[in-house]
Every structure is written in structure tokens, then in C-alpha cells.
Design brief:
- Helix content is about 35%, strand content about 20%.
- With about 950 residues, it is an alpha/beta fold.
- The strands form 6 sheets. It has an 8-stranded mixed β-sheet with strand order 1-2-3-4-5-6-8-7, sandwiched between helices.
- α15 (about 520-535) links the parallel β23 and β24.
Length: about 950
Amino acid sequence: MRTSAEPQDRYEYPAHWEADVVLRDGGTARIRPITVDDADRLVHFYEQVSDESKYYRFFAPYPRLSAKDVHRFTHHDFVDRVGLAATVGGEFIATVRYDRIGAGGAPASGPADEAEVAFLVQDAHQGRGVASALLEHIAAVARERGIRRFAAEVLPANTKMIKVFTDAGYTQKRSFEDGVVRLELDLEPTDRALAVQYAREQRAEARSVQRLLAPGSVAVIGVGRAPGGVGRSVLANIKDAGYAGRLYAVNKAFPEDQAEADGVSAYRCVRDIEGPVDLAVVAVPAEHVPSVVAECGEHGVQGLVVLSAGYAESGPEGKVRQRALVRQARAYGMRIIGPNAFGVINTAPDVRLNASLAPEMPRPGRIGMFAQSGAIGIALLSRLHRRGGGVTGVTGVSTFVSAGNRADVSGNDVLQYWYEDQDTDVVLMYLETIGNPRKFTRLARRTAAAKPLVVVQGTGTAPQGHAVRATRLPHATVSALLRQAGVIRVDTITELVDAGLLLARQPLPAGPRVAILGNSESLGVLTYDRCLAEGLRPSRPIDLTTGATPEDFHRALSAALADDTNDSVVVTAIPAIGEASPKDAELAEALRSAAAGVPGKPVLVVHVELGGLAEALSAAASTAPQAVGKVSGTEGGAPLPPLAASLDRSEPRGAAERLPAAAAPPSEGTRLIPAYPAAERAVRALAEAVRYGQWRRDAAEPGRVPEYEDIDEKGAARLIAESLERGEGLTISDERTCELLAKYGIKVRRGLPAPTPDDAVEAARALGYPVALKATAPHLRHRADLGGVRLDLADEEQLRRAYAELTELFGKPEVLRPVVQGMAPRGVDTVVRAVIDPAAGAVLSFGLAGAASQLLDDTAHRLIPVTDRDATSLVRAIRTAPLLFGWRGSAPVDTPALEELLLRVSRLVDDHPEVVAVTLEPVVVAPHGASVLGATVRLAPPPARDDHGPRTMPAY
């Protein structure tokens, strides 16, 4: 960073260009502007570069930089001459610079919009994606400074640098002159460039998490000399889980001659370890963490799991300490899980890492789990350990992350990892907060298209340890946007596990049609009623009577599955009086074999206090644990105690929870039948699976953003720029609002001011009768219920009478601000809004106008840009939508015209980030056409960077 008092030529130091980035190999680097204080760093960096790389940069042998070179490469005006450096540990590992040029390649200033760009990457860091990251950032800087094209000259043998340019996704031209490849890049972002950027982001962030979850070596720092304590407990957990890599115990208080701790190699300092350390688990007091991080960074440790508390969760001083921790770790290229973390778990047989406070290793399986809270993490692991608190026939955990304060690694990072993880089929996440909802929604949409993502979301109150972006959207709106992105949104941990276990091994239902069968008529009817309440389409329950045998269940289930009118089957079962428990195993086998005959439809079981069946279903599905030698926490194969006590003591604790914690994962293709202790839990999980299945089918055929030939995007841009130059940075005038909307084919019915009755009459003559007279004062605007509107005024007499009534009721004309407007065709009054939320991004909203809709919060939302399918679903998503389609004999309105209006508003906001809010109220949708009677538009300067900008890690 710049510390010198020497001024730059033209601009102050642009601090917003500073950014931390994740590189291709999962390490991190800091990108920042080069300043006059970097002369020594630049010289040292250049000395580390090979002669070949120097030759490629300068096209000639260039062993060292002259004083003139150093001055040139460190003095920038941050407009026409800009240099950026990628740093690790405060030292340069790569540089990039651009110089604005004019015709003939001579140095120039604005309005010249072309610049020459050149890179230099230290040989030891080539292949890490440093140049690609620098290109993204220098291109964003150039666009900010009015540069639209980059020119680069590269030697043909420098294939790596040519590939950096050609793979970036920008529109480009390539030529060959005088033995040099000349490349010209158009810096206007393209869909391909954005796709390349997102793909690189995904690979880099996934790799950074993979290094934390599958390390080849682990050092636990803070292992106490006596039994007990966090460090010693974690060391024992890692060791007992059978960790496949190298394990070290570290404590500076160890005697110099101590070689082991609990059978693990012991060291006083990480630097004393001869081999590499991939992951350090830090369990020392917060005041000692900085020295530990420095030792780890100097030793080349790749990542940290910081269990230590005393950070942002403890108050203002802790927040300062947490920021310093993140900055220090990133300076060394390390990523952090934590602080105040519960830990990480990976059950893969070639890893078997339990670097957490969980005393037992969870069962291996196909579920990835993320929790910010340690307490919630314990509860989730406990539910799965006990077969989901009464739910059995389940799979186990692939990986588990409890991120604590998530100062660095967040749910977004782990989601990037799970997206491509072949060992994870279902993702369960408990999110107390969402730090970057815009990015989370983007990642969730992509992940949900490949595998189910089930989320419990906090109510919006952020714990002290979490830094989150402020959002103006209600919690319910954010939840709706998550559902739009394919997230299975549930409310409780119980629902999280219930849905996850159904999705882990059962196929997605093809539709909402449900068959119900069982040996209890009452339980069948209860299940039927719950299906109706959840929007499913159940058939009448089939009562097999209490005397039903396993063979009866098998025949009935086989028939229900073979019936093409059923998409899924719920089996209800109660214990038969006098029946012996072995019958449970027979029933489980009967259900399993019937389900195996039609593997494409999901089967669920609702059982009442039938622990034997729950255990038998698991055994029948070949998931009962098999002895594989002595497992941690067992003696001679004796059962393990529960991982942790359940948070919900009301749940039954049956035989399932007595099963050992370690088990071989189920074989591929095994049909695991989940069993639920209550009908409402089973049906709720099934309903979520049905909705998710429908979302997957819809996502397979995404809509499109229509092109409208009458849109004048450039004209709108000019009008917006003029408005901002004039200082109209908030709500623009009615005249400019109408003009701007007209550029996008949105016509607003003209309203003429009427400060006197005579003016009102004159306005009516200009517009033509019939007309409406409206009070537009802020306290009366859009409040027809207060009587500030008079409609269908057919002549001058009626207009003057209405004018007198309004002034008598509400006061003088200067208070009322009356306007005269031509009458629109009768229809349904609606409201269309678009807003740029700082956290969620651009959101389009729709609802009916009026107090009832506001009171009931009957508004639907979609993320911008909106597709034609989004617009269609948005109109139908509100509860009062039947009013648009001929409810109770009324005439249906022109919903295609309404959908087109929504799409045009979406295009306006998406094309112009300066448009931060649009309100169209009311929009009267008639049987033919839609009329916009009122509109407001707010403008603001666009942000320097957004989610489409260069890759960056969250600022801290």
C-alpha cells in the first residue's frame, strides 16, 4: 500500500482497486496498485525472474532494471498509466501495466480509448493463474478509466501469455507482423468472458476448499501437555478416525527432548517440522494466534482451521483482531476456516479426517453438511448419527464444515467445492447469515441444477461474529429468491435432515401424484390430509387392515409403483398387537424388494413407534454397519453412544441410535427407504422433493430474455448521463422519467398539472374527455381509498365540481398538487417495481395495487435479468393472481401485455446499473393492453465493482 507523502500525478491512490484473489491452485494473492514506494520490491521481484521470461517481456536480453525503468514502472497517474502487482507475503510475484496510446501507438490521454498492456510473472508462480487474475483486474481498471481496447505484442514462442489473452473470452483480433503476434482485445464484457471468469472462480475456490478438506499432512497447534483441552481432544479425534496422512502435535511448551504426544510426533514449533504441512489446526489463545499464523505462513502451510475463540463474537476488540487475522493469513496465501470454528470432517476412505470437536467420526455417506454455528453442527451430526432423530434407512456424511465466524471461507466457497465433488449427492446447509446473497444465489442455481441443495436460513439477525452486507429486502423476499434459484428452503433442522435423507438415495418424483397404503386407516387419512395441505395430489388411502402381512405390503406397494397414475408412494405402518419383532425385518425386506422392482419412483414410510422396522429397513437396504476391525470408541464391536445429545428431546429414540457410528458407505444403486415417525414430516419432505423436481425440469429448458427492436439503449444511456451530470442523482423529474421509459417502449399516460380549476379544464380539453382528477401530494399519492381520485369525469361541469370537492376535503391546490389525466380502459390495478439491493442485486417485484395486497404482503419477486418464463411465473405467483384470469365471472385481462411490460422494465435495469429503482404505480391491466398511469425512477452513479467485475474475495 502507498505510504509515501509524495503525490501521484493526477489521482489519489485508488484503494478500491485492492483485492484478494484465489488462484488456480487454491492459494491466495493480493492485487494492488503499484506506487512510488515499491521501488525496492520491484527490483527484488525482477531479480527472481528468469532471463527467458525477461526476454519475452522486453523482446531482448534485459538482465536488470535501470533507475529510469524503476521510476517509470513505479510512477503512475492511475488514469493513463496504471500498474498492478500480485503479492504474496508482501512481495511481488507478478506485475501488469497499461499505457494509454493514441493513433500510431504514441502515448496519449483521454478521450483516446486504447492502451498497451504487458505482463511479467515470476517463474516460480507461473501456471497458478496469476496472469489471468491480473488481466481481469487491469481490464476493470481500464474500463473505469474510459479505455475500451487493449493491444498487446507477444513473441510467438511465448505461448503461455498468448493463451492468457485468447482464453479470456473477450472479443479479439490477432495479427502477425515483423515476427511479433499482435493481439487486440475489446474490453466490453461478453457472455463468454463472464462464463470464463465464473468457471475460473469455481475451480480456484473449489481447489482452495479441497486443500482444507483433504490435506496430506496436519499439524495440531496447541496440544496440551496434560490430557484434556481443545487441542489434545482434536488431536485424539484425528488420530482415532484413522487419518490417512501425516499428523503432528505442536506446542511451544513441550520439553525440548519430547518426541511424541499421544503417539504422534511432537514439535515445539511448526518450523521445526521437516516435511510440508498442508493444514494447521489452531487451538491456542487468541493473543497467541498471530505468532502461530506467521510461523505457518513462513513454513508454507496451505490453510488454517482456527478453533480459537475471542474474535468478532466477543465484541469490537475481537472484530479488530479478526480483521488482522484474515489480513495476516491472506498475506501468506493461506485460507482460514473460522475463527471460533467447530472444525471439518472428511469421511472419504483415503482421507478419514476428523479435525473437529466431534468425538466420533460420522458414518460415511453422500451428504455434504455446512453449519456456521458449532452448536448447530453438533445437532446436525447427532441427527444423522441417530438416523435423523427417528428417521432411518439413510446415508451418512461425505464432508462436514462448521465455519464459526466464517471470516474467510464461507458457504459460497464450500458450495463451489461440492458442486464438482463426486462423493457428494446432497448438500445440507444451516446459514445463520448469507454474506453475499447475490453470489450465493448464482452458485445455488448452478449447484441445484446438478444436485439437491437444502437450506435452513437464519431470520436475518446476524451473530456478532459475522460480517454481512446490509440488505433492504425482507427476510421472506430473500427466501423467495432462494427458492427461485432452486434452493429447497426449510425452516428447522428437523426439516433439513428429513428432506436431505429423502433426497440422498430416493429418485426425484416425476410429479405431485401420491399413492398411500398401509395397515392403519387413521394414519392413512392423516397422511392424505397432509398431502392436500402441501399441494400434492394424493389418491384415496388403501387400507390393508391391521392384519396385513409382509406379503400384503409387498403386493400393494408393487401395484402402486406399477400404476402410471402414481409418482410416489407413502407407506404407513403401525405395530400389530401380539406380533413379534422379527416381523419388522420381514416387512422391511418386503418393502425393499417391492421398491427395487420399480426404481424410478420414491418410497417413504411413516411408522409409529416401530423402532424395529426402522432398524430393519436400514438392514434390508444393506446399510447396517459391518465390523471392519476395532473402531474408535468401541470395544469388541460394542455399540457407540450417540455423537451428541439431541436438541429436541421430544423425538423418539429407538434402536437406530444404538448403531455404531462407523460404517461402510452404502453401495452404489442401493435403494434406501427413509422412515419417518410422523406423517407431516414425511409429507413435507416429499412435497419439497416434488417442488424441487419440477424446478429441475423447468431449469432444463430455461427461458430467454427477449430482444425488442424498439429499445433505444444508447439514447437511454445518454439521457441517464445527462441527468447525473445535472445532479439529478436521486428521483428524476416526471418529464425525464417518461422520456427515459419511452426509450424502452414503456409509455406513461400523460398527467397535466392543474393548479387552478381553469387549468384543469384546459388540460382536459387537451387530453380529451373523459378524464381523471388526482391529488399527487405525497400523503395522498396512490391512496384512492382516501378519496383523492375522481374518475370518469365526462365534461367540464363534472370536472369543476370534482375539483371543488377535493379542495374542500383536503385543502388548497398547492397542497393537493392536482393533475388531470386521460382515462385508461378499466381493468385490474397492479404495481411493478424494480430495485437494486446492495446485497441481493437487482430484483423485479409484482403485485396488485391496494391496501389489501400491502397488508398481506402479496408480492412476488424475481432476480433481474428476467426471462420470458420468469415473467410468466411472476404474474401467477401472487395469491391474488386469479383476479387477472377471470375470477368469479370477471373478464380476463391482457397478461401477455403485462408480462411484456415486466420484461421491458427488467431490460432497463439490467442494461443501466445507474437505474437503482423503478416504480410503475398503478399499472391498469385491461382485457386489451396495460396502461402505466404513474412512474418514478431513481438514478445513482454505478458502483465501481459489482458481481460481474473481476474475481475478488470478500474485503476485510
